[in-house]
Structure formats: structure tokens, C-alpha cells
Amino acid sequence: MADIKKLEKKLGITIKNTLLIEQALVHSSYTNENPARAAGHNERLEFLGDAVLDLIVADKLYQDFPDITEGDMTRLRASLVRRETLARLAEDIDLGGYLFMGKGEESTGGRKKLPNLAGALEAVIAAVYLDTGMDNVRKMVLDLFTNEWKKLTSGEQGIDYKSKLQEITQSKFQEIPAYRLVSETGPDHDKQFIVEVLIQEKVAGKGAGKSKKLAETEAARQAVQRFEKGFTE
To answer: What global pTM score does this model have?
Structure first.
């Protein structure tokens, strides 16, 4: 069967029940062509993994972003767990290379198909959950999603902190935030910007980024978090 040890290393986990993780890697086309060789395909595990993943992501959003609304959390979770994202993460660990599938499915590029990759990753998540428990699978999932999470706080996608900060300041002080460029360093291909955001002429946040927009977003994020902790002036 599959080289589970190699997969374990990529996932940063240790598998106890190898039969369970191997089932997570079996595409239904394989069982159709080899009914006597496979104990079952991964679709039931895929169903469970989808629910486990939703819970982990929802909990992370709830804990890390206490200022956002239910609608924001729903939208961000959908973005994080969508098929395209899961397939990309599966490709990063070459999960397609571990899959067992029928010759017909493989001949049509089955190891690269988005549904197969995303489904297999969800099945692996379920297998790890059943095998080692929620704490271990949560760590594995959050490690896999490290770069996706960074995007949520860098302004590349997700939360519009500048708009949120403006809503707060307009409500509290009837004014909008002012952004001040502190410094711009580095060559053209690798700039670094430092920006401060001022509220009532006081620095409420300071951010760095490879563009003014990213630096402003980070400064706004810091300011929003300060207001969450009771900052009023």
C-alpha cells in the first residue's frame, strides 16, 4: 500500500491505524475495479472530514477574530474550505501521488482533479481525527493552513480592517482614521513600507508591508484589536 511514513512526515503526525489512513486514500474507482483488494473507498471519511474541518476553521475564526460578524465568519470559512483551496493544499503535499484509483480514472488525470484532491484531504483529516483525536488533527489542519491564515491578516483576502476601523472611529469620534507613511526602504523589487494610523491625532496602530496598502491594513488591524481590548482614545 501507500508509503504512510512519508505521508506522516509531510503532515507532521504519527498514524496508529494504518488501515484507516489507507482507506482515506482509496478513490471509489479503485474499489470498482478491484472489489476484492480494497476494504472500502474514502467517501464516508470525506463526509466526516468536511465536518471536522468546518469545526476547526470556525473555532479558529471565532477565537482569532472576535470583532467580525457571523456573516464575515461564514464568508471567510467558505473561502478557506472551498474545493480549490483544499486541492491546492493537497497538491502541496503531493497527496494525489498517494491515491489508489482505477486505471480509467487515472488515465483521465484523476490524480490532479480538484474533487479527488479536495475529497482525499478531507478523508485524511477524518482518518487522523478518528485515529489520534481532535487536538492532533487540529494542529495538523492549522499547520496546513498556515499560509492561508496569513492571507487573512495581510489584506490579500478576507477581512477589510480599514473599513472596520473607519466604522469604529466614525461611530465613536465622528472622524475617519488618518494614515501616515513613516518610512519606505529597500530596492524597487523588495520595498518595505512602515505606516502609522492616527485617531484623534494619536497613533493607534503601526504596520509594515511590501506595499503601502498592506502596511495600512496591518496598522488598521492593530488599531481594531486595540479597540476590542477597550482602547477609547
So the answer is: 0.68
The CB density around residue 107, as the number of other CB atoms within 10 Å, is 9
Specify the fold of 161-228.
Answer: Double Stranded RNA Binding Domain (3.30.160)
Told to judge if 148 belongs to the known catalytic residues of this protein, a careful annotator would answer: no
User: What is the per-residue pLDDT for 151?
Assistant: 76
Closest CA to 26 of 94, 101, 108: 101
What is the mean pLDDT of the segment spanning 96-118?
A: 91
Residue 50 annotated to the active site: yes
Q: Out of 38-42, 61-65, 219-223, pick the least confident.
A: 38-42
Selecting among 105, 122, 131, 196, the annotated active-site residue is: 122
CA 47 to chain centre: 19
Q: What's the topology of domain 4-154?
A: Ribonuclease iii, N-terminal Endonuclease Domain; Chain A (1.10.1520)
